[in-house]
Write a structure and sequence with these properties.
Strand order of the largest sheet: 5-2-1-9-20
Largest sheet: 5 strands, parallel
Structural class: alpha/beta
CATH architecture of the largest domain: 3-Layer(bba) Sandwich
CATH topology of the largest domain: FAD/NAD(P)-binding domain
Bound molecules: flavin-adenine dinucleotide
Radius of gyration: 22 Å
Number of helices: 8
Length: 371
Amino acid sequence: MTATHKPTIVVVGCGFAGYSLVRELRRRHGRAHHIVAFDKQPGLYNYPALPRLLYEELAATDIEIPYQRLFAGLDVDFHQARITAIDTAAQLACTDSSTFAFDYLVVATGSRARPLPQDDGVFVYYPKAMRHLDRLRTYLQTPPAKQQRNLAVIGGGLTGIEFALAMRDAIDPASGRGAAPATRIHLFEQGERLVPRQRHALGRALHLELESAGVEVHLLSEVSRAMRNGLLVRGEALAMDCTVCCIGVQPHLRQGIDGLETGNDGLVVDDALRLGGTGRLFAVGDVMTMRGRKSVSVELHMAQRAMEQGRHTARNIGRLLLGGEAQDYAPTERPVSVLSHAGRGVLAYRDFCIRGRLAGRLKRWLDLKHV
Ligand SMILES: Cc1cc2nc3c(=O)[nH]c(=O)nc-3n(C[C@H](O)[C@H](O)[C@H](O)COP(=O)(O)OP(=O)(O)OC[C@H]3O[C@@H](n4cnc5c(N)ncnc54)[C@H](O)[C@@H]3O)c2cc1C
């Protein structure tokens, strides 16, 4: 490396993880690096705010925040393009039309919804897709053709819970337990409690919120298939009019990036979030898994974790460039906030948990302030 050589850092995917990495690199090291960033979309998708779209108008730029705005003043060479191949030996990242050399590369391509087996012709809603959300909102706003309808949300994680509550708000915010609403909302969870990767206090608080909103929670209820008229739940057919599937995510490498190998849970990184032991490749956010190395007891698939990993990796690249060593990433316990119904929310930190309008207001504010 000559005295004038600026190391090039290529960032593949600029969601919560990739964007935080870029921002931290600039914050800590000024213009010391040449940053080349790629995303196939023109803006960062603000997933935490999506459930609110079912019952509230939000500005388009609060949902898809333009990279032009996010990178303004950061001196980033941004390309709206999909990376299709990475040559790790030659240190090249490729789009369909160009090739880019790198000194360090970070894969932050996120995740996509895990699909549920289904019969032909059945429409299952997946909340990461805007076109599904638009269709779901229209469906919920349209007066039902029959007196009683049953809506299903599959998955008792944070996303499934927020969607079940948002659906209740979209249909009849005033109805709660005892109000005998014309639309019944069912939440199916295969485990014996809600949010199994979070502390018990949060699961209990969310269960109470769901009950007070009139959402029927079915625990130990594994859904194995979406059928023409409903769902197969523990081998039994249950009639449902609409199904929203929130059973988790899988790494976003659908078309594959040549040169990277991934398992079901994502790119396997070491404790310092490095890929393949080269010391020049990293993976952060939803696309990676740490499970190959040590047990991780916290939920990793969260925007705040992705941002934490992005910042950690920016600091590690800084250390390596100064001749130091990469440090291990250890997820820290952070507060979790969830939007409930009728303006309410739940805020939990360790075993401390509050429910109510203050928690709701805080969550709404955080959703638009993440980035
Ligand atoms: C409905 C919903 C609600 C959620 N609510 C919350 C919440 O309240 N709180 C919370 O903490 N977390 C929440 N999450 C989880 C959170 O959104 C994710 O954990 C977070 O987005 C992961 O960040 P990421 O950077 O890894 O991936 P993403 O944010 O998905 O970013 C990945 C980026 O990579 C780009 N990309 C993919 N492949 C390529 C390629 N080959 N070339 C170039 N670019 C590529 C994509 O376009 C995307 O912009 C929610 C998720 C969903 C779906």
